[in-house]
Each structure stands twice: as structure tokens, then as C-alpha cells.
Amino acid sequence: MKKFLVLFIFAILFSRVNAQPVLEGDWSGALELMGTSLEIITHFTSENGSYTGKIDIPLQKQKGLPLTGIIYKYPKAYFELDVPNGLTKFDGAFVDDSIKGIFSQAGYEGTFYLVRGLSHTPDVKTDEIKESLPYKEEEVTFKNGDIKFSGTLSLPEYPGKHPAVVMITGSGPQDRNEEVAGFKVFKVIADHLTRNGFAVLRYDDRGVGGSTGTSVNDYTSEDFAGDVIEAVKYLKTRSDINPGAVGLFGHSEGGLVAPLAASKYDGIAFVICMAGTGVTGEDILIEQSKLIMKASYISPEEINKDILTLKTMLGAIRNNENLDNIKKTLKDERLKEYDKLPEVQKSRIKDKDEWAESFAKSYISAFTNTWMKFFITYDPAPALEKVKCPVLLLFGETDLQVPPAQSEKPMLDALKKGGNKDFESKIFIKANHLFQESDTGNPNDYPKLKKEFVSGFLDYISSWLLKRFSPSR
């Protein structure tokens, strides 16, 4: 590590930049590890010589995570991120007006870089839909027990009792816009639907933004279904909403939560599932892991090995088995991998035993929280069988996270078995999990893609709704 940093310092000393650059401001860049790149955005401020900072990780839907231990003594720039999976350390140095260095977490080491400025320019479709909106927006709150939710309600500008849509985010902590890699998925959908005569409620997840509660990992999809039901009940109390035309729009895990809520509460008028799941979380995790690793050019041998480990872990959690043996196996396998590493990589690992131990702990902790335990075993089919209102299923052809070949048929079969008389399914060509145009569907490509949906996606949704519910004009 020291040799690596010396090279950067040498470059700085002989650069043409004479003035010492400042750390304050916005920076964008990426973490790079084993051929994979993960976009990051940092924000630094200083007061009386003391620095504070935050980091956004768009692909992981993390925003405003606090940075600690910040040290800036030109050319060195050091900071830390403390997350449940372990402390991440960023040890870098200035090269001209950029920062480059090494990051480490849970025994892994990779490189990172930051360049001054934000990674994408404003886009009226996602960042700031024009201020002169042809509809109204209202900040609203509602409660589910002790949890208070804050959200935005978009309303057509003309008076009347409007049909309404409640938006349900996918897994992980997400804000009301369901922003992923700079793409404000729900804000764009809400804008389109409101322009077509529908009121739209989108709200921050538990523990995110203006909503109270702890991490979403402390709850289950069943808890989130309860939140959705309370959102629907809130809308039904309003004089500007048609109480008989309030439905749900769920993306990814939200496409699992929407039918679950509809199976528990009769007052839901329709359900739209955008990349919803039709099989257990265990099956989803195994299949998406295979597909994403293949798309990332991991060798078939490594894929088979990792999938075997994943299956063993998921099976143990499903059967409530003790995980000590799995932890030992993970650590032992990690130590074997250490022996095969190039000397350059070995030199970056200070303590191989700690490196292997950290990996095993991090792997297990990712699969043992409350949310994951429920997700692994939950089968969406029984809830879908109980849904009698109109249902629209939407899938992306190149989606690697919820592949349509795995989920579409089980969802259709469940709706048929339950006797639902009004349901429809549509697969959008070259659409990824966010329904952006993508030939590969690889999540690593999200930051590079246009912040817009595939052609016809929004119009298909509004057309389906307008056939069933008339706006109050």
C-alpha cells in the first residue's frame, strides 16, 4: 500500500498544479474491485479546520451516509465509512485535481478514484421535472402504528375525485423517488400518471428521508404490506380521491408487496407489478446470482463454487440451522484462495486470518437480518391467488435481477388458479430491471445508461389504467 501511495505523491510533486487543491465540494467516481466498478459520490465540507462528509452509493440505493475519520493533509486524503458489514477505509492522495487510492473492507482491498463535480447533468425527466408542472404536488404524512411516513402526493390540477396510485419501492432503503444510479424511477412514473389524470402517492421507506423507523432490514415484506394498506386508507379519507379507485404500483420487491397487501385488504382497486417476483426469495437469489456473475465474465467453475456456497447458506437459514460450521467453511475456503492470489494482492492484505474471518462474518451477516430471513422463504403464489382486482405484470427481457423466465409463469398460474378475471402480462424487449434499454441487463451498467424508460413503457401503463378507470375531468 505504501509503495502505491508513494507513486501518487511523486506524480503530484512533479505536476503542473502549483496551488494546493481543496477537499471541500462534490466529487464523483467509483470503487473498483476484481473487474467490477461501483459508482460513488462524496460531499465534503469544513469548518474551523474540521471536516465532515457524506457519501452516496446510487447502485445500492444509499444516500447521505456519513463519512468519519476524515484527514486532509495535502496530498493525503483519508476517510472512513462505518456500515453494518464493516468499516470501509479510503486511503488516497491528490493527483492534480483528482483523488486516487486504495479502499479496504472486510478483508478486501481495491482501488477508488474521485474527480471534482457530479457524475451526471440534470435531466428534466429525472432530476428536476419542470417547476411549472401541469399538476399540484403536496407534502403528506400518514402512520402505521408508531411509524410516521412522509411522502409526495401528486394531484391533477382540476378539481374532482381522482383515481389514485400508491407507489411501492423495491428492496433496500429507498426514498420516495426510488432513485437508482441517478435515475429517479418513481418520480418519472408519477409525473406521467399525474399528467394522465391519476393522483400518485410516493413515500420514503421506513427509516429513510422524512419517515421514521429503523433500517428496513429490521422489518419484513409483510410489515411493508401493512404500510401500503395504511397509505391506501389515508387516500380514501381525502375528498379529492375516488375511494373506489385506489390501486398499487410496486417495483421489484414492491411487486411482491403489492399483491400481499391486496390479499389482506379488499379496498384495493388494481395492482401493477413492475419486475415483481413469482417464486421464493431463495430461488430468486440463486438465479440472479448466476446470471449477474455470468454477465460479469466470472468463470463457470467460480460460478458453480459460489452458487454451491450460496445454496448451503440459504438452506441453513431456511432450516434454522447453526451457522458456525458454515462460517468455518467460508473462512477455510477463503484461506485457500489467499494461497492462489498474486503476490501483489497478497501484499495488500495485512493479516490473512483476519481477512478470511472478516469475509466469513460479512457473508453471514448479509443473510441473517430480519428482512432476508423472511424474503428467503416467502412464496408469492398464495397471495396472488387471493387477488381478485385487475392485475398488470410488467417484465424486462434482459432483467438479471428478476428474470421473466423465472417469475412470469408462476405469477400467471397463481392468478389463473385464484380465478382472477382481469390480468395481463407484458415483457419489454431489451429492458433491464429498471426498464431502461440495455442489451446485457447487467446492474453494473446502470450508471452508464440513459435516465429514461424503454420506448412505450409509460404509455402502456397509462393506457392499461385508462381502460379501467376514468379520470375526474
Strand content: 25-35%
Specify the helix fraction band. Answer: 25-40%
Mean pLDDT, all residues: 87
The rounded Rg comes to 24 Å
Across the major sheet, the strand order is: 1-2-3-4-5-6-7-8
CATH architecture of the largest domain: 3-Layer(aba) Sandwich
The CATH homology group name of the largest domain: Alpha/Beta hydrolase fold, catalytic domain
Class inferred from helices and paired strands: alpha+beta
Oligomer classification: single chain
Distance between the first and last residues' Cα: 66 Å
Shape: globular
Q: What is the tally of helical segments?
A: 13
Our count of domains comes out at: 2
The low-confidence parts are 1-19, 120-130
Secondary structure: number of strands: 18
Most strands sheet: 8 strands, antiparallel, barrel
CATH topology of the largest domain: Rossmann fold
The CATH class of the largest domain is Alpha Beta
Topology:
Blueprint (H helix, E strand, L loop, with lengths): L1 H12 L11 E9 L2 E12 L2 E8 L4 E12 L2 E8 L2 E10 L2 E8 L2 E9 L18 E10 L2 E10 L5 E7 L10 E2 L2 E2 H11 L3 E5 L17 H16 L4 E11 L2 H11 L6 E4 L6 H15 L4 H19 L5 H17 L2 H5 L4 H14 L4 H8 L3 H6 L4 E6 L7 H14 L5 E6 L28 H10 L7
Helix pairs in contact: 3-4, 5-6, 5-10, 7-9
